[in-house]
Amino acid sequence: MAARVEITDICKAYGRLKVIDGWDLTIGQGERMAVLGPSGAGKTTFLRMVAGLEQPDAGKIRLSSTKTAFVFQEPRLIPWRTVRDNLRFVNPSADVSAILQQLRLAGFEDYMPAQLSGGMQQRVNLARALIINPDLLILDEAFTSLDLPFKLTLIQDLLEHWHKQRFTMLMVTHDLKEALYLADRILVLSAAPARILHDFAIRLDEHRSFSDPELLRHESELLDLMTEEINHRSQ
Amino acid sequence: MKSSFRFLIGIGLFLLFWEICARWIMPGIILPELGIVGREMLRLLSDTAVYQAALQTLWKVLLALGLVLVLGIVLGLLLGLSTAFYQMMRPIIMIIQAVPVVSWLSLVIFAWGIGWKGPIFIAFLSLLPMALLTTVSGVSNLDRKLLEMARVYQVPRGRVIRDIYLGSLIPFIVAIVDVSIGQTWKVILVAEYLCGSSGLGVDILSARYYVNIPRVYALTLLAVILGLITERLIKLWLGRVSQRWQPA
C-alpha cells in the first residue's frame, strides 16, 4: 500500500547554516512529488530525512509505511557482486530476471557493476529500488548524469511501473521538464534556509508527452515563478 | 620468463656473495662454505627425524596463523563496528603489542613449561594486534554510501556483514596474511628454540649446542624454503577464495 508522508514543522541546520526552515507538508498515497530549488536549498537533506538517513533538528516526519526505496544520484552498487546479487541483496526472494527484463537489462544478470556503462548501472539502481515493491520511492537526481535517450527510456520504464503499482514518489531534480513529465505536484523552494515558496499542482493527463502544450504552459508558469524569486532575492 | 630469469640471477648472486664471504672474508666457524652446507642439507633430507620436526613446526605455524586470522578478523570487525568497544580495548591491544617476546616467554615457561603451547601462544600474541588493527582500519575505510544504501533497504545485519563488510575487508585480510605468514614462521622458530619440545627450532638449538654450524645453516635454509612454500600455497588458496569478492 502506497505510503502517506506527513511532515510537521521540520527544521535542519548544519552548524550555523540553516538549510530547512519550518516545512509543513503532506504527500498523499500514490502522489508523485518533485522538489525544485537552487543548489544548497536542502533538497537532498530533505530526501535523506524522509528516508530516515538523517533526523530533523525539530519537527516530525511520519510515514504510513517503512517500505522505502531510494534511487541515489550515484548507483551505489556493491562492486564485487553481480547485478543479480546486487538485486538479491535487497530482496533475496525476488524474481530478478523479470525486473531486469522490464528494465531492458535481460542477459546482464551475471555482469559485475564495473562491466556496465554508467547508464546501465543507473538502470540497476532503479531495478534494485523497484524489486522491493516499494510503498515510497525516493529519487535524488536519479537521471542527471544520463544522456538523453537513456534518460527518456528510463523515465518511461519508471512511469510504467508507477502505473502498475501506484507507489508514492518523491523526487529531487534540476530538470523542470523531467519534473513536469513525472510529477503531479511540484514544490518550489527558496535558497537556504529553504522555505516552500510554491506548492504547484500539475493538472495534466497521467500519460504525458514532452510536447504537450499544457506541459509547456506549466513549464513557462514555473519558470516565471522561479525567475520572480531570483529577481526578488537580488533586490 | 624474463622475471624468473632475473630471479635466478638474484639467487645466483646471493650464493656467490655467500661463497666469497665464506672463503675470504669470514672463513671458519661463522660462515661455512656452500659445499659444506649443501652436504649437510643432503644428510638432513635423508633423515626422517627432520621431516617430523618440520611437520611439528608446520602445524604450529598453521594453527597460530589460523587463530590470528579468525580471532583477529572477528574481533577486529567487532571493534570496528563499535567505537566505544574499540576505545575500551585499544589500551589492551597497545599493551599486548608493546610487551617484549621474552616476557611472554617467561610467563609461558612458568605456565606450561617446555612444550607446544608456548610457541603457538607467543606467535598468536605477537601477531594478534597487527591483525586487529588492520581489520579495524579496513572497517573504518569501507564505503559508507553502501552502508547507507543497506540501511534504506533495511537489509539484515548478517547479510550486510557478509556482502559489504567482508568484501571491503578482503584486501586487508590479504595484507594480514601477507605480513603474518613470514612473521609466524620466525616467531614459532624462536619460541621453539627457547621453550619448545619439538620442531625445527629445537633442532637448531641442538645443532648450536653441538657447535654444528653447517647444520644450523642447513636447518635455517630448510625453514626458509618451507616458509616460502607455505606462503605461496596459502596465498594461492586465499586468491581463489577471495575471488568471490573481487570487482570485475
Any overview of this molecule?
- Chain A is α/β, with parallel strands linked by helices.
- Chain A has seven helices and nine strands; from the N terminus they run βββαββαααβαβαββα.
- In chain A, helix 2 packs parallel to helix 4, helix 4 runs parallel beside helix 5 and helix 6 packs across helix 7.
- Chain B is mainly α and 248 residues long.
- Chain B contains ten helices and no strands.
- In chain B, helix 2 crosses helix 10 and helix 3 packs antiparallel against helix 8.
- The longest helix of chain B is centred in the C-terminal third of the chain and has 39 residues.
- The model of chain B has no long low-confidence stretch (mean pLDDT 88).
- Classes of the chains: A alpha/beta (235), B mainly alpha (248).
Beta-sheet strand percentage of chain B?
under 5%
Helical fraction of chain A equals: 25-40%
Order of helices and strands of chain A: EEEHEEHHHEHEHEEH
Beta-strand level of the residues of chain A, as a percent range?
A: 15-25%
Compute the number of helices of chain B.
Answer: 10
Entry summary:
The complex is a heterodimer of chains A (235) and B (248). Chain A is α/β, with parallel strands linked by helices and 235 residues long.
List keywords for this structure.
heterodimer; A: 235 residues; alpha/beta; B: mainly alpha; 0% strand
Secondary structure elements and their pairing?
The complex is a heterodimer of chains A (235) and B (248).
Chain A: E1 5-14, E2 17-27, E3 32-36, H1 43-50, E4 58-63, E5 68-71, H2 83-90, H3 96-102, H4 118-130, E6 136-140, H5 148-165, E7 168-172, H6 176-182, E8 185-189, E9 196-201, H7 213-234
Parallel strand pairs in A: 3-7, 3-8, 5-6, 6-7
Antiparallel strand pairs in A: 1-2, 1-4, 8-9
Chain B: H1 2-25, H2 34-45, H3 48-81, H4 83-98, H5 101-112, H6 117-140, H7 144-152, H8 157-195, H9 200-209, H10 213-242
Helix pairs in contact in B: 2-10, 3-4, 3-6, 3-8, 3-9, 4-6, 5-6, 6-8, 8-9, 8-10, 9-10
